[in-house]
Here is the input.
Amino acid sequence: MTDFKHNVETMIPALRRYARALVRDTDIADDLVQDTLVRALRAERLFLGGDLRAWLYTILTNLNRNRRRSLARQPVLAEFQDTTPDASGTEAEGRDISRALATLPEDQRAVLLLVVLEGLSYRDVAEIQGVPIGTVMSRLARARAQVKSVLEGERPALRRVK
Here is the structure.
C-alpha cells in the first residue's frame, strides 16, 4: 500500500465522524465518506502535497453541497422528533446537543464541527468551505450562540431561508 493510500485510510474515522455529525444520518454519512474516498483515490495524482486532511474534508464538503442541491429539487418530508422523556444523564445531554446542532443552518453546523470536533484552524476551515476567514469566524460565533441558547432552554431563532 502506498503512503498516500495509507494516509487516506487513517483519515476514515475522522471523515465518518464529521460526515455523521454534519448530515445526522448514518447511511448518508457513510455514502459521503465512501464517495470521498473513491474520489480521493482516483485523484491521487492531483494531490500535490500539503494538508491531506483539509483536502479530504474539502472533497466531502463539496459532495455534501452537491447532495443538498439535488435534494432541494425534491419534496421535503417532516422529520420524526423523539420526545421520549425517560432518558437521563449523558444520553439526555447527547440528545440535547444533537437537537441544538439540528437547529443550526448547515453552513454554521459544518464550521462548528470542523473547528470544535475536528480541531481544524479557522484558515483550514475557510479553505475547505471556500469562504473568507471572517465568514468562518462569524458562522462559528452564530453557531455557538445558537447552541448555547438552545441548551439553556431558550427558543431557537428562526432560520433564514436562502
Summary: The first helix runs from residue 3 to 10. The radius of gyration is 17 Å.
